[in-house]
Structures are given as structure tokens and as C-alpha cells.
């Protein structure tokens, strides 16, 4: 086999991004600023990346001929979304380097495979059982106890495909809701409930040469299972932050990631860090790096997949990010001018036309002298957008 080509892909060349959402749009903005061409590959024509890339290929991720046509003009391809068949990544890889490799997508897009990977490599996570039947679920509940969380193994995100079980009567209902799919039983994972102190995440990059560069851990607050506010500093003891950073780097190395990935953690009341999820791409909790760090997570993704030196992840200022979900539009177009009147606030809108409740439409970032002040600013700015 020929040795893999490790020469850097330099500005002027063409980067492909699988997926056309806001993460792809922000990747495209960073890459084009650096002088690259960007082509996005999506199954939706009117997607956020459409306005920011040089070319958009619209087709079916399951169609190898479409993927081969899309790959023809690319020098490298990466992902912005993990609910793409890993096979699509493998098809592309026949024509162009895919970073991270499709195998990374394969492991992390399925909770059962991801948990098996974590356990095999000794990374601590919540106790879990893989469930294929109603009987399995009863046995898993008997093993792990209640409360517990039942999750579909595949294609879940932002709390979709999840149920919290608190009473024995919930077990059959949960199986009927999540397990009994129209095409036969779905694979599920039951997780023991973690009574965590807080949630944090680490966005990190790994270069072609194996070098790791991690951003400071962000503290994440969720509302209705969807990320609501992320902030840095995470206001936790240094040993906890160092442990999370080390685990994140070790996970990227064990997976062989070339690119950016995010590791989400539960921090327990006694300061242990348990891995919740791995996303093999940039992450919502890393958006504040755009304003707050020497290098944004999107520029870092460009550098990593192009085989360039990774940028400095230094945090220049405390920062907080608040998501703007479709709910903010409940009483009409939000009052952006009012939000932008709050000092240190920046607005990012993704260009999505339909503000459905729970849909990520944009975000606000605030910089300040302290993390608390950044959180106050960003939540105040978001409150001010709401009319009525
Ligand atoms: P996930 O999609 O797995 O990231 O879950 C979404 C959110 O649900 C997490 O960020 C937590 O706030 C909550 N959650 C998920 N799993 C558990 C668990 N095992 N124990 C406690 N909370 C959980």
C-alpha cells in the first residue's frame, strides 16, 4: 500500500464538507477567509451552508454515484453532522482523503458502539446496557436500577429519542415508544441516571502528525435536553478541568481522529468526569471560540484536516454563548437591535427560514471580564430579543 500523503493542503485548494447545517456554514466561512474553495454536500438545497460555499452538491447520501461526482473536485473532505451513513464517508474515501476517517463516524454515530469503544479503552462513562427487546429492558432496569435514561442507539440528537424512566410502570411504555420501531425492534441503550454536579465539554483537534490542541472546557447548561448556555471558564477545580482535557485528547488519539471532535462529560459531585458523548466534528459548545479564542474551532478544523499546524487555543477573554431556538420568534421577528445594545455581544444567525420551536436558528456570544458577567450579558441580550 502506498504511504498516506501527508503534505499540507494549502489555500487555493478545495475542501468538501459533508452536511449543510450551521456547522458547515461556519466551517466554510473560516475556510474561505483563509483562501480555500469550499464545496458542501447535503441532501437539502436550502441549507445554511448554501450561502457560504462555492458550490453545493444536493443529493442522497446513500447514492455512491452522487458522492463520486461530488468528490471529483475535492482535495479533502470532512463532516459537520454525524447522522450521515458511515458508508457515505467510505464512498468518498475512494476518491479523496476523508478526515476524520469514516470509521470514526461509524463508532461515534451509534451509542452502543460508542459506549463499547469507551469501555474497551478504559474511559469512564455512565453504567449502561444495550437493549434489543422488552425482556432485555426489564433485565437492564433490574441491573441498573431507576431512575435511568433510555436512548435510541442511532440517529438521536438534542434529546430526541430519549426517555427518562423513574417508575417500574415506565418500562413497558418506554419500550413501546422507543423500542418497537415500524421495521422491527430498534437497538436501544439504557443508561444509569447520573446525579451530576454539572456538564462540561472539551472541543479538541488532532493534527495529521498526532498533535493535540484542546480548547478550555466549557460549562454547559441544557434546557429540555438541548444546549442552552455554554460558558468559559467552567468554574471548576483545576484537577477536574485537567482530567477532562486529558481524557478528551486520549479519546481523539484512540479513535485516530484527524480533525476536530467534542467530548461531552458529566462532572459528578465528587469531581469525577464521565464521558457522555463524542461528536467527531465541531460543536455547539465551541461556538464561543469564534470571538473568545486565538483560533476558532472552525479555523482549527480547517487547519487539522488540511494537515497544517494547529492554531493556539488560548482563551482571550471569559465568554458565554446562548442558543437562539425557534421559540425566540414566538411573537414575531426578535428585537436584534435591543440584544446588540448589550456590551460585548455578537449575533450569529444561520439563515434558516422557518423558526420551528426547538430548532437552532442562531446564537449570541458575550465577552466580559468574568464568566458570570458574560453569562449575565448573553442571557440579558437573549431576553431583550423577545417581543411582547
Ligand atoms: P445526550 O443526548 O445523551 O447528550 O443527552 C442530552 C442531555 O440529557 C444530557 O446533556 C443530560 O443533560 C441529560 N442526560 C442524558 N443522559 C443522562 C444520564 N445518564 N444521567 C443524567 N442526565 C442525562
Describe the model:
This protein is of the alpha+beta class and 388 residues long. It folds into three domains: 96 residues, Rossmann fold (3-Layer(aba) Sandwich), CATH 3.40.50; 66 residues, ATP-grasp fold, A domain (Dna Ligase, domain 1, 2-Layer Sandwich); 190 residues, ATP-grasp fold, B domain (D-amino Acid Aminotransferase, Chain A, domain 1, 2-Layer Sandwich). Helix content is 30%, strand content 26%. It contains twelve helices and 19 strands. Strands 11, 12, 13, 14, 15, 16, 17, 18 and 19 form a nine-stranded antiparallel β-sheet that branches. Strands 3-2-1-4 form a four-stranded parallel β-sheet, with helices on both faces. Strand 1, helix 1 and strand 2 form a beta-alpha-beta unit. Helix 1 crosses helix 10, helix 3 runs antiparallel to helix 4 and helix 6 crosses helix 7. The longest helix is centred in the middle third of the chain and has 18 residues. The chain is globular. The mean pLDDT is 95. The site of adenosine monophosphate (AMP) has 12 residues, from strand 16. Adenosine monophosphate binds next to strand 16.
Amino acid at each position: 500500500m502506498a504511504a498516506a500523503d501527508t503534505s499540507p493542503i494549502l489555500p487555493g485548494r478545495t475542501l468538501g464538507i459533508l452536511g449543510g447545517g450551521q456547522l458547515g456554514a461556519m466551517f466554510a466561512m473560516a475556510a474561505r477567509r483563509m483562501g480555500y474553495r469550499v464545496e458542501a454536500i447535503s441532501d437539502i438545497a436550502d441549507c445554511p451552508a448554501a450561502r457560504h460555499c462555492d458550490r453545493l452538491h444536493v443529493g442522497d447520501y446513500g447514492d455512491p454515484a452522487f458522492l463520486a461526482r461530488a468528490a471529483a473536485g475535492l482535495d479533502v473532505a470532512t463532516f459537520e453532522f454525524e447522522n450521515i451513513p458511515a458508508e457515505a464517508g467510505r464512498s468518498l474515501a475512494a476518491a479523496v482523503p476523508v478526515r476524520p476517517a469514516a470509521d470514526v463516524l461509524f463508532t461515534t454515530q451509534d451509542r452502543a458502539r460508542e459506549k463499547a469503544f469507551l469501555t474497551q479503552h478504559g474511559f469512564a462513562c455512565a453504567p449502561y446496557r444495550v437493549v434489543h427487546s422488552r425482556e432485555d429492558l426489564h433485565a437492564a432496569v433490574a441491573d441498573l436500577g431507576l431512575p435511568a435514561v433510555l436512548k435510541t442507539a442511532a440517529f438521536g440528537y438534542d434529546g430526541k429519542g430519549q426517555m427518562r424512566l423513574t417508575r417500574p410502570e415506565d418500562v413497558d411504555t418506554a419500550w413501546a415508544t422507543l423500542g418497537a420501531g415500524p421495521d422491527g425492534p430498534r437497538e436501544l441503550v439504557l443508561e444509569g441516571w447520573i446525579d451530576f454536579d454539572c456538564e462540561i465539554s472539551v472541543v479538541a483537534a488532532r493534527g495529521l502528525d498526532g498533535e493535540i490542541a484542546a480548547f478550555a472546557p466549557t460549562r454547559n447548561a441544557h434546557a429540555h435536553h438541548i444546549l442552552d448556555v455554554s460558558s468559559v471558564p467552567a468554574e471548576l477545580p483545576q484537577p477536574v478541568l485537567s482530567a477532562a482535557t486529558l481524557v478528551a485528547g486520549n479519546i481523539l488519539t484512540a479513535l485516530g481522529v484527524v480533525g476536530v471532535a467534542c467530548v461531552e462529560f458529566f462532572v459528578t459531585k465528587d469531581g469525577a468526569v464521565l464521558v457522555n458523548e463524542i461528536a467527531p466534528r465541531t460543536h455547539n459548545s465551541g461556538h464561543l471560540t469564534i470571538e473568545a479564542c486565538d483560533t476558532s474551532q472552525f479555523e482549527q478544523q480547517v487547519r487539522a484536516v488540511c494537515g497544517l499546524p494547529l492554531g493556539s487555543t488560548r482563551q482571550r477573554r471569559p465568554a458565554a454563548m446562548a442558543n437562539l431556538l425557534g421559540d425566540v420568534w414566538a411573537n414575531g421577528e426578535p428585537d436584534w437591535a435591543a440584544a446588540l445594545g448589550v456590551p460585548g455581544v455578537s449575533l450569529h444567525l444561520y439563515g434558516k427560514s422557518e423558526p420551528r420551536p426547538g430548532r437552532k436558528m442562531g446564537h449570541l456570544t458575550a465577552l466580559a471580564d468574568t464568566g458570570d458577567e458574560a453569562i449575565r450579558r448573553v442571557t440579558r441580550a437573549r431576553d431583550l430579543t423577545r417581543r411582547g
